[in-house]
Glycosyl transferase (Shewanella maritima), 406 residues
Amino acid sequence: MADFYQNGIVTTLHNLSQRSDEALEAELIKFAKVRPLGLILPSLFSELEGEAMPDIVSKLAQVPYLSEIVIGLDRADKAQYQHALTFFKDLPQHHRVLWNDGPRLKELDAKLEKLGLAPQEMGKGRNVWYCMGYILASGKSESIALHDCDIVTYEKSLLSRLLYPVANPQFNYEFTKGYYARIANGKINGRVSRLLVTPLIKALKRVVGYNDYLEYMDSFRYPLAGEFSFRRDVLNDLRIPSDWGLEIGVLSEMQRNYAHNRICQVDIADNYDHKHQDLSLDNTEAGLSKMSIDITKAFFRKLATQGETFSCETFRSLKATYYRIALDYVENYHNDALMNGLTTDIHLEEKAVEMFAQNIVTAGQRFLDNPMETPFMPTWSRVISAMPDVLTKLKAAVDADHAEFM
């Protein structure tokens, strides 16, 4: 049973009654007549060969309220793209696969590159950005969900609960962030959120002082969740980073663009698990080590835009403050695990904290060394201003690929 506590400055929508998915779907079918619903799936081709994606697609085929599904496909050659078309062909909803490595989309990307508007870094952020552009181009959806493609505990109810706050015409939410407990195989997971993001926010509040942005970020129960939903008009002016700071960047943009009462978080799953990244203790360019640096830089960039000034001394103080807070969290989570018959490895948890603490300094130094870094992709409003027919070209390229190879 979930609690009903409202903590922080954004609304929390709980799972208080274990309401059936059938009841939620019945309402969503009604909502979809007024506000058509869509879904974005950013995917690597390798995920089509994994255990999670076939199960996700089989369950999505049973969802009655979606108007469209947009799949962004990365790292796929021609044969793999054709395989993807076959893989998704049984979805009854209108759907399109964006072949991001195909010649048509690469040609469009090259035109944007000449204008200085193409995403500079390959990855999930770029994939999501092009999918959002296609959603704008298709005009088929007014409220859209996005979730990862490696969820091995996927249930239809996850999507229903994720979409409900932005689908219900009686609600005024523009954006919903999903949250859940990361528990699998008798262990508490979610190390980066538990042991980096939460204690880092607490440490920043001590070092920087009261800050509305930090209070806002501290309201989210799982800020790194890859599941969120939004109204279509959000897409025009959303500037998102292309690195591992995507989730933090999206939350930051929503705080900049909308009042707190237009944003909420919702409990979407009792059980959630997906593939795990390596800790990468000895490699700052891979795994959770790189992720922690990108996420930390995302916080520094956001606070800098609000006038905060950082120095090497600031980052040293922040590291020390973070380290003490994070070690307390290691003990808190260990005790919580024991009471619930679960486990945590204190040694590995503290090694992760030590790495994150060092990476706070590393992220700070990189932030100071490269003040001109602009990892954000441009808003679609800006792209449309520079190339008025870009959405038409994007939709035509995707539809032409589908028609040629299906």
